[in-house]
Specification:
Length: 251
């Protein structure tokens, strides 16, 4: 493919930065978006990419697409993951997570659709979309909503030549100052059949593939890059040591 213009949100670090780096390495023009100005400008200068400082909680975030046009690929990697016990939840806390994690990707995709040109959108979801966990009711709900929004957008935009997919990573070690986690939490969520945490570059590789021509017949899909965590767990022992009489009857 000829060089494309790729917009990546959450590009100041973690998965977003890895995605920006992967596209830049291909020769694509990259615009990184993040609310952390100093970190974003430093990161984008290293890969010769453009930097747009913006808070995706602002409903005017769709202007990013209009200002960056033309856009060939949109990667919605920005997300926040606060730890809020359910009985401490407030309307403000709930809305902030939904606005950044769901509303912003949808509004950016709407703006992309209005531009009237073929494009690819890849949303970054999470295993939290299918598995609730303490302190993350708002986050888990936002990722479940993002996966449905991915499917809904894919259905409505396919006729315009816009493919919309998602990548759902398992736990990935990013050392994020925005979404810090304890060592105990990291150890617990890293348990998967592969036996380790994911790497940002592994998620980025999936994003690049979904945005490319090789995935031209793929839309509305959620690709789980999680070390097999969704498939099940190898951490449990056999539930019983032998076959009982009735279990073996007739054999």
């Amino acid at each position: 493919m000829s060089p494309r213009h790729v917009v990546v949100t959450g590009a100041a670090g973690g998965i977003g930065l890895a995605v920006a780096e992967a596209f830049a390495a291909r020769g694509d023009t990259v615009t990184g978006v993040d609310a952390r100005e100093a970190e974003l400008r430093t990161a984008m200068s290293r890969i010769n990419a453009h930097a747009v400082v913006a808070d995706l909680g602002d409903e005017r975030c769709a202007e990013i697409i209009e200002q960056a046009a033309p856009v060939d690929v949109l990667v919605n990697a920005a997300g926040i993951y606060p730890a809020t016990p359910f009985d401490a939840m407030t309307a403000a806390a709930w809305d902030r997570v939904q606005h950044v994690n769901v509303r912003a990707p949808v509004l950016l995709t709407v703006a992309l659709a209005r531009a009237g040109r073929p494009a690819a959108v890849v949303n970054i979801s999470s295993g939290a979309a299918t598995r609730a966990r303490p302190g993350a009711a708002h986050y888990c709900t936002s990722k479940a909503a993002l996966e449905m929004a991915t499917k809904a957008c894919a259905v409505e935009l396919a006729g315009r030549g816009i493919r919309v997919n998602a990548v759902a990573p398992g736990f990935v070690e990013v050392g994020s100052p925005v979404n810090p986690v304890t060592e105990a939490y990291a150890a617990a969520v890293s348990a998967n059949p592969v036996g380790r945490a994911g790497r940002p570059a592994e998620v980025a590789a999936a994003v690049v593939w979904l945005a490319g021509d090789e995935a031209g017949f793929v839309t509305g899909a959620v690709l789980r890059v999680d070390g097999g965590a969704t498939a099940g767990t190898a951490e449990l022992p056999l539930h019983h040591t032998h076959t009982t009489a009735l279990q073996g009857a007739g054999h």
